[in-house]
C-alpha cells in the first residue's frame, strides 16, 4: 500500500511540475487581446496558449496568430500544419477520407490521449458494437459503456464564405494536444475528438483567393460588394448542406464515411451567420422521427454551452430562435438520423479577416430583435457591434471547448443514450406500425427502384430481397432494425403542421417513393418468410430484358429516367440508327404501346442488349412496323445550360444531373448571349432556376465594382473553374436578351425552370405569359398533385393523367383563356373558374339540359398535398404548372417549379428529358 501511495504521490508531483514548467506564449496572449475588439468578447478559456518547445503553435508556424487581421489560409497551408502536428505529437493523427470533385483531399484529424491513440481501432469497434443492439445485448452494452470512450466530431468549412472555422480548428487542435491545463487534459483523456478541418476544400480555396483578390480591401460591411466567390464546389454552392438524402457530393460522402467509421456520439457543424453565437435547438416543429432522447440532448447541451459562455461574461449567445429541426437532409443530420446527436453553431462572421462595424438594429429571429433580452438569449448584444475575425474565433472556440467539456464529463450518459436510441428504434419496429415496407418487383421504372434501394443502403438501412416464392424479386425493408426511424422518415408522407408559428427553414417533404417515381407499399405486417429473404449486400442493379421476336425493337415508354441517356449512347455507337417516337397507340404482338413509346430502327442485337442491360430498360422485339404517319423521328439536340454569375446554385445541380445521366451539354454565360449566333450552335437552351427577376437577369452583378475577373492566375490558381470570365459583372444586357429571343424565333427551344421563368416573361421574350399572385399562398417544398391539360403534348409522354411533383415557393404565371392550350399541366385536379362551362340559361337560345356533374372515378378528387403542407392551396389549384409558348419558329417551355431540384425529385426530371427528346416537335 505504501509503495502505491508513494508512486501515486510521485506521479502527482511530476504532473504538477510539468504544469508549472509549461510556458505560456505571452505574445500569443497579447495578440489575442489586441485583435479582440471588446473585453466582453474575450473568454478566459481561449487564453493561455502554450509555447511548446517541440510542437509549433500557429504563430510559430505561420508567423501570425489565428484570427490576425487580413490573414486567411488555404487548404494546402491548413493541411500542412496538421501534418506537422501529426509528426510532432503522438496525440494527433491525420488521414484522408475522400477526394473532392476537383481533386483536393478531404482529411480527418483524430485527437486523443495516449490510451486513445494507442487503441483507436478498439474504441472504434466498441462504438460499432453499441450502434446495433441486435448484436449487443444490454449486459454486453453495460460492459462496453464502461470501457468505451465517447467520440465527438467537429465539422468545419462547409460553407465557404463562413471562413472562421478552418482557422479556429487549427488553434483548437494545437491547444488540445499541448495544454496541460486540467480542463484540457480531461477532454484529451476522456474523449476522442475528430476534426474535419475543411469539409469543402474546393470552395475554401476559391473563397480564400476571392478574399485576397477582392474583399480584403473592403472597409465597410454594408457596401453591397459580393463577398462570395461565384462558385464553391464544382457543382454545388450553399446546398452542399442539403445533400444528406442524395449523398451525391464528395463533401457529403466524406462526412458519411467519418460517421459510419466512428459512430460519434455528437457531431457539431461550425457555421457563421447570426449574432453573436447561435447554439442550435430550433423553434420546431421537430422532425417526428427523431428520438426524444436526441431532442433532450439538443436542449441540455445548448444550455450548458450558453451557461459556460455566460460564466465567462460573454454576451450574445442564444438558442431556439433560428432554424426549426424538421428537414433531415442536412449533412450533419447523418447523426440525428442514426441515433447520434447532430448540432450546429452559427457564429457572427465577416466572410474574411476584416474588422467591420456591424449594425444589428434590423436583425430579427423568430420575430424578436436580435438585441432583445429573451429567455433564450439572456445577455443580448448591443445594436451596433465592432466585430473582428478574432472575436469570431473566440466565440466559436469557447463554445466548442464548453461542448467538449460537457461530453467529456457526461460521456457515460451519452453512450447510454446512443445505445438506448437503437433499442428504441428496434422496439418500435416490432411493436408499432408499419412493420415493413415493400418495393414491388414490377415498377414503371425498375432502374429507379434499384436506385431507391441503393439510396437506402447508403443510409445504412437494411434491405432484403425475396429470392423465392410468388413475390420473388421484391425488395423488403424490415423495420426491426436500428435505423427504423429513418426508414419510416424517408418512405412515408410528411405531415407538416399548418399551425406552425414560424415558417420552415427548408423543404418540408421528402417522401422518396414520390420523388423517385417508385411504388412503395407500407405494411403493418411482414408477408414474407425469413428463409425467402436475402439481405442486399451490394448495390442493386436492374438489368432490362428483351421479350418477343422479330427484327424491330420497341420500348414501352413510362417516363423512365434512363431513356434519353440511352439514346445519346446509341447515337454515339451507331450514327446510322434511327429512333422514332410513336404518336398513337401501337400494337406489336401481345403488347400495346402507349403514345410516346419508341421504335428503334437499324440497331443490332448487341446494341439492344447493351441498352437493356446498362440502362435498365425492357425492350420488346416485334415484326410489325409503325407507319410513317404515326411516328416522328428523334433528332437529339445540342443543349446549352445557361448560368448567371450572380447565382450558380441551381445551375450547378442541373449540370450535375446532366452529367450523372450522361446527357451532353455546353455551359454558357452572359458573354455567349452577347456574342449571338446561338441558333447555329444550339438547339435547346436550358435556363435553370436563379434567384432574382428580369432586371437581375439582364444586368447581372452590378458593374459598380467591375471589372471583376474570375480567371485562373498564378496568384489565384483556384479561380476560373468550372467557368471563367474576364469580368463577371454586368449581364447579357439588352443585346443578349435580343439574341436569346432571336434564338427561339429561329426555331430553338428555351426551357426555363421555376424562378428563371421570370426572365422570359419580364424581358418580353414571351408576351402572353403574365405573373399571377396567389393571395395568401404559402407553398414550402412539398409533394403535390398535378393534372394533365394537354395529353397529346410530347412533354407529358409517359405520365398518367394525374401524378405527384415536388414544388416549393416560387412564381406563378397564367395565360388568357384563349391561350389556355399553351398550359400543358395544372396544379391540383379542379379547373379554374373561367374554364367551367356555363350551364345556365342563355337569352336568345333554347333552354339547355342541365347535365349532372361527373364524379371522379375514385369518388373524390385526389388531394392536392401528397406530402408536406400548403396553406391556402385553393389559390393555386387550376393554375399552370408548365406552359408551352410558341415564339416565331421555336418555343419557350416555361416551368413554374424546378424538376431538377437538388438531384432529388428524379420522378419530375423526365418532363425535361421529354422536351429534349421532342424539342422540334412541340407544336
Keywords:
27 helices, disordered N terminus, 17% strand, alpha+beta, ten-stranded mixed sheet, eight-stranded mixed sheet, Aminopeptidase, Alpha-Beta Plaits, 923 residues
What does this structure look like?
The protein has 923 residues and is α+β, with helices and mostly antiparallel strands. It has 4 domains: 43-122 and 151-209 and 245-425, Aminopeptidase, CATH 3.40.630.10; 433-535; 547-633, Alpha-Beta Plaits (2-Layer Sandwich), CATH 3.30.70; 639-834 and 857-917, Class I glutamine amidotransferase (GATase) domain (Rossmann fold), CATH 3.40.50.880. Helix content is 32%, strand content 17%. It contains 27 helices and 37 strands. The strands form 8 sheets. Strands 26, 27, 28, 29, 31, 32, 34, 35, 36 and 37 form a 10-stranded mixed β-sheet that branches. An 8-stranded mixed β-sheet has the order 1-2-4-3-5-8-6-7. The N and C termini lie far apart (96 Å).
Question: Secondary structure elements and their pairing?
Answer:
Elements: H1 2-21, H2 26-35, H3 58-62, H4 75-88, E1 92-99, E2 105-111, H5 114-118, H6 120-130, H7 138-147, E3 151-155, H8 164-178, H9 182-190, E4 192-196, H10 201-213, H11 250-262, E5 266-272, E6 277-279, H12 292-311, E7 317-318, H13 333-336, E8 341-347, E9 356-359, E10 364-365, E11 368-369, E12 384-387, H14 389-409, H15 411-431, E13 436-439, H16 446-458, E14 464-466, E15 475-478, H17 484-491, H18 512-516, E16 521-523, E17 533-535, E18 546-548, E19 552-555, H19 563-573, E20 578-582, E21 586-588, E22 591-593, E23 598-601, H20 605-615, E24 619-622, E25 631-633, E26 639-642, H21 649-661, E27 666-668, H22 670-675, H23 678-681, E28 684-687, H24 694-699, H25 733-745, E29 749-752, H26 757-762, E30 770-772, E31 782-788, E32 802-807, E33 812-814, E34 823-827, E35 865-867, E36 880-887, E37 890-895, H27 910-917
Helix pairs in contact: 4-8, 6-7, 7-15, 8-14, 9-14, 12-14
Amino acid at each position: 500500500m505504501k509503495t502505491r501511495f508513494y508512486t501515486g504521490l510521485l506521479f502527482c508531483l511530476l504532473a504538477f511540475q510539468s504544469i508549472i514548467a509549461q510556458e505560456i506564449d505571452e505574445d500569443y496572449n497579447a495578440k489575442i487581446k489586441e485583435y479582440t475588439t471588446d473585453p466582453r468578447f474575450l473568454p478566459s478559456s481561449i487564453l493561455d496558449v502554450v509555447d511548446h518547445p517541440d510542437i509549433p503553435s500557429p504563430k510559430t508556424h505561420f508567423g501570425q496568430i489565428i484570427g490576425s487581421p487580413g490573414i486567411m489560409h488555404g487548404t494546402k497551408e491548413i493541411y500542412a500544419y496538421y501534418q506537422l502536428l501529426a509528426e510532432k505529437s503522438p496525440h494527433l493523427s491525420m488521414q484522408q477520407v475522400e477526394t473532392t470533385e476537383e481533386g483536393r483531399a478531404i482529411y480527418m484529424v483524430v485527437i486523443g490521449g495516449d490510451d486513445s491513440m494507442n487503441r483507436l481501432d478498439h474504441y472504434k469497434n466498441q462504438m460499432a458494437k453499441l450502434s446495433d443492439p441486435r448484436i449487443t445485448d444490454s449486459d454486453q452494452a453495460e460492459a462496453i459503456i464502461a470501457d468505451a470512450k465517447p467520440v465527438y466530431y467537429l465539422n468545419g468549412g462547409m460553407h465557404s464564405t463562413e471562413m472562421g472555422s478552418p482557422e479556429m480548428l487549427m488553434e483548437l487542435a494545437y491547444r488540445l494536444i499541448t495544454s496541460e491545463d486540467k480542463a484540457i487534459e480531461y477532454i484529451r483523456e476522456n474523449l476522442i475528438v475528430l476534426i474535419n478541418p475543411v469539409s469543402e476544400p474546393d470552395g475554401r480555396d476559391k473563397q480564400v483567393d476571392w478574399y485576397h483578390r477582392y474583399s480584403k480591401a473592403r472597409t465597410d460591411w454594408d457596401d453591397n460588394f459580393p463577398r462570395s466567390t461565384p462558385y464553391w464546389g464544382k457543382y454545388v454552392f450553399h446546398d452542399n448542406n442539403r445533400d444528406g438524402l442524395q449523398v451525391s457530393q464528395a463533401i457529403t460522402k466524406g462526412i458519411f464515411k467519418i460517421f459510419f467509421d466512428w459512430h460519434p456520439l455528437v457531431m457539431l457543424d461550425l457555421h457563421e451567420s447570426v449574432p453573436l453565437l447561435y447554439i442550435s435547438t430550433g423553434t420546431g416543429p421537430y422532425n417526428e422521427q427523431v428520438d426524444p432522447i436526441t431532442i433532450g440532448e439538443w436542449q441540455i447541451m445548448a444550455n450548458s454551452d450558453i451557461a459556460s459562455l455566460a460564466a465567462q461574461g460573454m454576451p450574445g449567445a442564444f438558442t431556439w430562435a433560428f432554424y426549426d429541426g424538421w428537414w433531415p437532409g442536412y449533412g450533419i443530420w447523418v447523426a440525428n438520423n442514426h441515433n447520434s446527436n447532430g448540432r450546429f453553431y452559427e457564429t457572427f462572421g465577416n466572410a474574411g479577416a476584416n474588422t467591420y462595424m456591424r449594425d444589428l438594429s434590423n436583425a430579427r429571429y423568430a420575430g424578436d430583435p436580435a438585441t432583445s433580452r429573451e429567455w433564450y438569449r439572456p445577455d443580448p448584444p448591443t445594436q451596433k457591434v465592432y466585430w473582428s475575425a478574432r472575436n469570431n474565433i473566440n466565440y466559436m472556440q469557447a463554445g466548442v471547448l464548453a461542448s467538449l467539456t460537457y461530453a467529456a464529463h457526461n460521456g457515460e450518459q451519452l453512450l447510454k443514450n446512443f445505445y438506448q436510441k437503437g433499442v428504441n428504434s428496434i422496439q418500435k419496429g416490432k411493436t408499432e406500425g408499419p412493420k415493413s415496407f415493400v418495393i414491388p418487383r414490377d415498377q414503371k421504372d425498375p432502374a429507379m427502384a434499384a436506385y431507391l434501394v441503393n439510396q437506402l443502403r447508403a443510409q445504412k438501412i437494411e434491405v432484403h430481397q425475396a429470392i423465392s416464392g410468388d413475390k420473388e424479386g421484391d425488395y423488403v425493408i424490415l423495420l426491426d432494425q436500428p435505423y427504423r426511424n429513418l426508414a419510416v422518415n424517408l418512405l412515408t408522407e410528411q405531415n407538416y403542421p399548418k399551425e406552425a408559428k414560424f415558417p420552415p427553414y427548408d423543404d418540408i417533404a421528402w417522401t422518396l417513393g414520390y420523388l423517385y417515381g417508385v411504388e412503395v407499399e407500407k405494411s403493418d405486417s411482414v408477408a414474407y418468410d425469413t428463409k425467402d429473404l436475402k439481405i442486399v449486400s451490394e448495390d442493386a442493379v436492374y438489368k432490362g430484358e428483351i421479350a418477343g421476336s422479330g427484327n424491330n425493337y420497341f420500348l414501352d415508354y413510362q417516363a423512365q429516367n434512363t431513356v434519353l441517356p440511352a439514346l445519346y449512347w446509341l447515337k454515339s455507337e451507331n450514327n446510322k440508327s434511327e429512333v422514332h417516337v410513336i404518336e398513337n397507340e401501337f400494337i406489336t404482338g401481345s403488347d400495346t404501346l402507349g403514345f410516346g413509346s419508341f421504335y428503334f430502327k437499324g440497331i443490332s442485337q448487341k446494341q439492344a442488349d447493351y441498352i437493356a442491360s446498362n440502362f435498365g430498360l425492357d425492350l420488346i422485339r416485334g415484326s410489325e412496323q409503325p407507319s410513317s404517319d404515326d411516328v416522328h423521328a428523334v433528332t437529339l439536340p445540342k443543349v446549352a445550360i445557361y448560368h448567371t454569375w450572380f447565382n450558380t446554385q441551381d445551375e450547378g445541380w442541373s449540370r450535375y444531373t446532366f452529367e450523372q445521366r450522361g446527357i451532353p451539354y455546353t455551359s454558357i454565360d452572359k458573354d455567349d448571349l452577347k456574342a449571338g449566333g446561338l441558333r447555329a450552335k444550339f438547339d435547346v437552351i436550358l435556363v435553370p432556376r436563379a434567384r432574382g427577376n428580369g432586371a437581375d437577369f439582364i444586368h447581372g452583378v452590378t458593374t459598380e465594382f467591375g471589372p471583376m475577373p474570375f480567371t485562373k492566375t498564378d496568384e489565384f490558381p483556384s479561380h476560373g473553374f468550372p467557368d471563367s470570365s474576364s469580368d463577371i459583372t454586368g449581364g447579357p444586357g439588352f443585346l443578349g436578351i435580343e439574341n436569346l429571343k432571336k434564338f427561339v424565333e429561329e426555331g430553338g427551344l428555351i426551357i426555363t425552370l421555376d424562378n428563371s421563368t421570370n426572365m422570359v416573361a419580364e424581358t418580353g421574350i414571351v408576351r402572353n405569359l403574365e405573373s399571377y399572385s396567389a393571395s395568401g399562398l404559402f407553398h414550402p417544398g412539398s409533394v403535390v398533385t398535378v393534372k394533365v391539360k394537354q395529353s397529346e403534348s410530347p412533354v407529358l409522354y409517359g405520365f398518367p393523367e394525374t401524378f405527384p411533383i415536388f414544388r416549393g415557393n416560387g412564381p406563378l404565371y397564367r395565360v388568357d383563356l384563349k391561350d389556355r392550350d399553351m398550359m400543358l399541366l395544372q396544379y391540383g385536379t379542379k379547373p379554374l373558374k373561367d374554364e367551367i362551362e356555363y350551364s345556365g340559361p342563355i337569352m336568345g337560345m333554347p333552354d339547355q339540359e342541365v347535365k349532372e356533374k361527373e364524379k371522379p372515378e375514385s369518388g373524390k378528387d385526389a388531394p392536392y398535398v401528397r406530402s408536406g403542407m400548403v396553406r391556402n392551396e385553393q389559390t393555386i389549384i387550376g393554375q399552370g404548372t408548365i406552359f408551352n409558348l410558341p415564339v416565331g419558329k421555336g418555343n419557350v417551355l416555361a416551368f413554374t417549379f424546378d424538376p431538377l431540384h437538388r438531384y432529388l425529385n428524379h420522378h419530375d426530371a423526365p418532363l425535361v428529358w421529354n422536351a429534349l427528346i421532342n424539342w422540334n416537335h412541340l407544336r
